[in-house]
Amino acid sequence: MYGTLRGALAARHITIDVDKYKATVEGRIEGEGRAIRITEIAVHYDLTIPTGTRKEADRALEVHPQGCPAHQSVKDAIKVTWTADIKEE
User: Fold this and answer.
1) What single DSSP character describes residue 53?
2) Which DSSP helix (H) or strand (E) runs through 59?
3) Based on the number of CB atoms within 10 Å of its own CB, is 12 exposed (0-12), middle (13-18) or buried (19 or more)?
4) CA-CA distance, 63 to 17, in Å (whole number)?
5) pLDDT of 58-70, one tens digit each?
6) CA distance linking residue 89 with residue 53, whole number of Å
7) Domain extent listing, the chain
């Protein structure tokens, strides 16, 4: 999802500094014994965007899961959520 969001921002002509673009991912694993499975993945983005591009960035965030091959591959088996803290500079 990280790369897909970056691509969605680039498609909207939003240039980001990779040093100010971070994703933190947490997962939940459930099961008993050796039979386990990933049940949830939560992605949190911290990114800085140019001032005046918030509307476009919000749209990129909204649609990026639909364009992400990894998300599309697991969405029916694993609950995937995302949040974002966005700073404008």
Assistant:
1) -
2) helix 54-63
3) middle
4) 21
5) 999 999 999 999 9
6) 10
7) 2-88
